[in-house]
Specification:
Low-confidence stretches: none
Shape: globular
Largest sheet: 4 strands, mixed
Strand content: 15-25%
Mean pLDDT: 97
Number of helices: 8
Strand order of the largest sheet: 2-1-3-8
């Protein structure tokens, strides 16, 4: 596990300091859509320059290095207990070496652990798989954009949102409107639909791990993703809430079966720094 620990430290470094190519490409395309001399164009220029400098200097893209969220696909027979311990130790090392800002605060004492570890911190999800390859996905989820997320229980009368995709669309637009430019747009928007609150919150956040070029394999969902991206970018919120044509870079939707009596929708917003990466072991 020693080499794996070092690999996770390097995964932390990569995710914290280098924006995924698909996100950077989307920001460059957005820059060209904004009017010359506008606040939106200026904001996107600064974001792209920050991205370049962070990569070249191997320093974090943002001072808030967020909550580490791990998604592991684990081959049969590999100890999840050992993997969890390895991730926790690698987190301590990465906090010092990258460095990462210490963000784990005890809810009782209000003391910061100083090393990004604590009860349920980092967040780690396991899935057992039949293949012999261990896959570790890491997201660094900023606190500001996490606070901007919303959960809905359809129907929602004040939105005239019924238990259908049009109701989902209204909820997503409402969440972006309520964010009011907080959480550093342009956003990547993750949406989860399903039977239970805990199910859809995880599902929505998982969508932020998808590449922006990755459309849903379900035709109806793919159409809703495309329509919502167009609708959101008509809101005029713009980069950093300063106005403009680019409020979101992508919308990704995950669906599960629901109970006849429940229809939950969660909207998870990522800031422009959708920091994610993968380690295959």
């Amino acid at each position: 596990m020693l080499k794996l620990k070092d690999g996770i430290v390097e995964l932390y470094r990569k995710v914290a300091t280098s924006l995924p190519p698909d996100v950077e490409d989307a920001l460059k395309a957005a820059l060209l859509r904004e009017e010359e001399g506008s606040a939106a164009r200026s904001s996107l220029s600064i974001i792209l320059e920050n991205t370049r400098l962070a990569r070249e200097s191997a320093r974090p893209l943002c001072q808030d290095t967020g909550v580490p969220v791990f998604y592991l696909k684990v081959p049969v027979g590999l100890s999840q207990i050992e993997l969890r311990e390895t991730i926790i130790e690698a987190t301590r090392m990465a906090t010092e070496k990258v460095p990462l800002r210490p963000n784990a605060v005890d809810v009782i004492t209000e003391k910061n652990s100083g090393d990004n570890t604590g009860l349920g911190f980092p967040v780690i999800y396991f899935e057992e798989i039949a293949s012999g390859t261990l896959t570790i996905d890491l997201m660094l989820k900023g606190g500001g954009c996490e606070n901007a997320g919303q959960t809905y229980r359809l129907p929602v009368s004040e939105l005239n949102a019924q238990r259908d995709f049009e109701g989902v669309r209204r909820c997503v637009l409402d969440a972006v409107q309520k964010a009011q430019g907080k959480g550093c747009p342009p956003y990547i928007v993750g949406v989860g639909i399903g039977a239970a609150k805990d199910q859809v919150t995880r599902l929505a956040k998982e969508q932020l791990m998808r590449r922006l070029t990755d459309g849903s394999k379900i035709p109806e969902v793919a159409l809703l993703e495309k329509r919502l991206l167009e609708d959101i970018n008509q809101l005029g919120v713009g980069p950093h809430g300063l106005g403009g044509r680019t409020t979101a870079l992508g919308v990704k939707i995950g669906v599960n079966h629901r109970h006849p009596a429940s229809y939950f929708v969660d909207v998870s917003l990522s800031c422009w720094a959708d920091r994610r990466g993968r380690l295959i072991w």
